[in-house]
Design goal:
Length: 414
């Protein structure tokens, strides 16, 4: 899945957009390089003996404010992937009008190989390694693939011990009891759902008559299935790293979530046919949701995609070349830098609550999230139509790039 360098892909896309829409080459240069990169290698005594663990934190651009972005634990984490994710965070935060630059971090481990105690030691040591680099007004991490509120809680605790004070705003996605926000746990999916709702309305598609396939059944994918189900939409197929399942009449999402919790996978769910992870992407559905990792749709399978709309809940699931094939097939792609921005938006609400010592209700958060996602979608849609941009991703790139460049100019840096 990760053979293609996602960073080269992202920068190629940036270059093409800038050239096509006459954005000055000199201005664009600053966005072709991450501002700061920290790579750390640190020993940890784990249940499997002494391990030297590699970790990264990339602060891509801070023109709009302190950098912000998630933290991934995955065996394939490498510097090129983290740079790409940090670049996309930079654009995403600009599109949602958040007062943040973009960053991302990762640790190259397979969390399933370690005990909970090992993961706590690794998390705390990573914070000891990078604590000078991060902070509420510098760079604020959050959960991503295979990280969760518990890990954010350990990291906040370790940071507080080092600084000798409570600093809840240094990280988001924390448990509720220690400064987490209502709705953060399902905010990525909820934000995606709001974007999808707006897009379906524009294209005059009745959500109740659609069929959806979701590739990746973790925080983003599983919560989206739950939200769609509670809005009477039909999810016919889902998959996780072990494989996929399909029922053309719709899956019982509540039972499926129970099955996933009990068996740690969606495979072998009663009443559903097995599918491979590639089959699920090529199903004849209305809505396809890549919600796993980068490079799920490449030039080799883009021609076989049958969906009408793709909601990119994952970051970078479609390669640059695949995007062009989907465009030719007239498939509407709701790009990651808009579609999955609900997570960072509620992270922003969490950061604000921490800074002000405030507590907002779930209802208040959802209302604010809905307003932000709708405003961002409307703005991009209007630009897409009025400027005749080729697709939503291009409209989103141009909007974000212009905003960041203006901030760089106003700071007197370029
Ligand atoms: P997660 O760890 O909760 O879930 C990942 C899911 O993907 C799991 O079900 C896993 O089994 C599945 N998966 C892994 N490899 C797969 C493969 N090859 N084929 C099919 N499924 C596979 O992670 P998450 O937080 O849901 O993140 C998923 C995507 O959403 C990532 O691209 C992430 O960057 C993006 N995202 C997450 C958030 C967030 O707040 N969690 C915010 C924005 C974007």
């Amino acid at each position: 899945m990760n053979q293609i360098n996602p960073y080269n892909d992202a920068i190629e896309c940036l270059g093409e957009v800038a050239e096509r829409y006459n954005i000055d080459e000199k201005d664009i240069e600053i966005l072709k390089h991450p501002k700061k990169i920290l790579m750390v290698n640190f020993p940890v005594h784990t249940s499997k003996g002494l391990k030297v663990i590699s970790g990264y934190r990339v602060q891509y651009n801070d023109a709009l404010g302190p950098t912000k972005g998630g933290l991934r634990f995955h065996p394939h984490v490498d510097i090129e992937g983290v740079k790409a994710l940090a670049f996309w965070m930079t654009l995403k935060n600009a599109i949602l009008d958040l007062p943040y630059g973009g960053a991302k971090g990762g640790i190259t481990i397979d969390p399933q190989e370690f005990t909970e105690h090992d993961l706590e030691e690794i998390s705390r040591e990573y914070i000891r390694q990078i604590h000078l680099f991060i902070g509420p007004a510098k760079d604020i991490p959050a959960p991503d693939v295979y990280t969760n509120p518990k890990i954010m809680g350990w990291m906040m605790d370790e940071f507080g011990k080092i600084k000798g004070e409570h600093v809840p705003a240094m990280i988001t996605g924390k448990p509720l009891s220690i400064g987490g926000s209502q709705a953060r746990s399902y905010s990525t999916a909820m934000g995606g759902f709001f974007v999808l709702r707006e897009a379906l309305a524009k294209y005059k598609i009745n959500p109740l008559q659609t069929k959806t396939a979701i590739h990746g059944f973790g925080n983003a994918g599983m919560n989206l299935a739950k939200i769609m189900d509670s809005n009477n939409m039909t999810v016919v197929a889902v998959s996780d790293s072990k494989g996929g399942i399909y029922n053309e009449n719709g899956l019982n999402i509540e039972s499926l979530i129970k099955h996933k919790k009990e068996t740690r996978s969606v495979v072998d769910f009663a009443g559903a046919k097995p599918l491979t992870n590639n089959d699920i992407l090529e199903l004849n559905v209305d809505i396809l949701v890549p919600a796993a990792l980068e490079n799920a749709i490449t030039k080799s399978n883009a021609g076989n995609i049958n969906a009408k709309i793709i909601l990119e809940l994952a970051n970078g699931p479609i390669t640059f070349k695949a995007d062009k094939i989907l465009y030719e097939k007239k498939i509407v792609v709701l790009p990651d830098i808009l579609a999955n921005a609900g997570g960072v938006t509620v992270s922003y609400f969490e950061w604000m609550q921490n800074l002000y010592g405030a507590r907002w209700t779930e209802e208040e958060i959802l209302k604010k999230l809905d307003d932000r996602m709708k405003t961002a979608f409307d703005e991009l849609y209007d630009n897409y139509v009025s400027e005749s941009y080729v697709d939503f991703r291009t409209a989103a790139y141009v909007y974000a790039i212009k905003k960041i460049i203006q901030a760089e100019k106003d700071r007197g840096r370029i």
